[in-house]
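Hello, quick one for you while I still have it in my head. No rush at all, and the record is pasted right below.
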Amino acid sequence: MKVFHELSGTKIEFSVLLDEGEFDGERKYSGVTEFYFDFGDLNPSSIHPDKIALVAILNLLPFAKKSIELMWGVSERFTEACKLISRVKILSDEENIVAHSMGSLNEIPCISFSGGADSTAALAVMPKITECVFLLRRENSGKTLYDSDAAKESCRKLTRLGYNVHMVETDLEFLRDPLGFPTDLAVGSPAILLSDVRHYSSIAYGTILESAFGTSGARFRSYSDSSHYKLWSSLFDAAGLGYSLPVAGVSEVGSTLICENHALGKVHQSCIRGKWGQPCKNCWKCFRKNAIIAAIRGSKVKFDYIENIVKSKEVRMKIFNEAPIKHEGVLTYCIAKEGASEGEAMELLSDLVRVGKIPIDWMEKWYSGSDYLIHESYRDEVVKNLERILGAMRPEDEESLNKWENSNNEEREKILHLLEESLF
């Protein structure tokens, strides 16, 4: 796979020349051979070659079979970092490129902002000079349920509050079939490409504890030992950028608490299908977020788990087809805090997610073992904000986190079968 790029005015375009047999429907590749980023009123007249290479790899790595050949030169430092990629070789022109100097500690922090609760929580604890870069998906003629209305309104609200917000249009999600981001960090591509002209020291993401430390799935993991962290933190570093995860030690419960207790919380909407102020109330994200809010606020009108499971095909699929359920611990927290409604189905759901059997209080606190993931230029400030808003986990909380495990077994399958029978 050969990759070319052309920077012209406010736009950078990437094009791909496929090797023979490269596209055969594997690895969810759509076969699209061009994608672009349009910076609107900004003109990034020059972007360091290593940063362009980082963006190319973020967007094309999952689809390459044997190699990604960058048809421009990169630095020796970046070339060395690319050797961490074992499945695919990263090749480039034999051009002598000077490595990008690492950003100074007084440069501007940046966040890849989505408009949801997690990235809003991250922004809330970051320095007030932080700039936001929003990836604006190109209109897609009904191929996805995504609606950018709420996210764009979040960006407008931030602008009115004095934040610098940059919306960058791209069609990168068309590289994937089904439509979506090629890698989880590809959403930060516009921020990476703007980092030279805007003087960004680092790119922050709203990645939360469930994703970083594995508690959305089967068991806790040490993120620093993961191949994901080792690869991408090294490539960002080689490109002269910090890779920063300010709320990686905050659970989905904690990010919601930050949005509830911070003024910036009013600018977010987690649902990416409904219009601003009108979430769809039918997707898996709405199901979780509404359950968390009801649990946190102690609403007199309880969240109806069973009704929402019955009416939403997507929620049913998550409950009955995933083992374990993604973000299952969040449901455990919500049901435990709100108090389960009466009825056989609700009792079975409570048993399924182990209400009363596993500790949940740690989800309200910040895991201080994640501080190394916060960029050094603003680490102290973020830590103070997290300790002030949430408080740090106690030793017993950290023990509960480290012991997190959620595996499937016969007893679980039995409960799941009984729950399905009681509902349908």
About this structure: The CA atoms of residues 276 and 328 lie 27 Å apart.
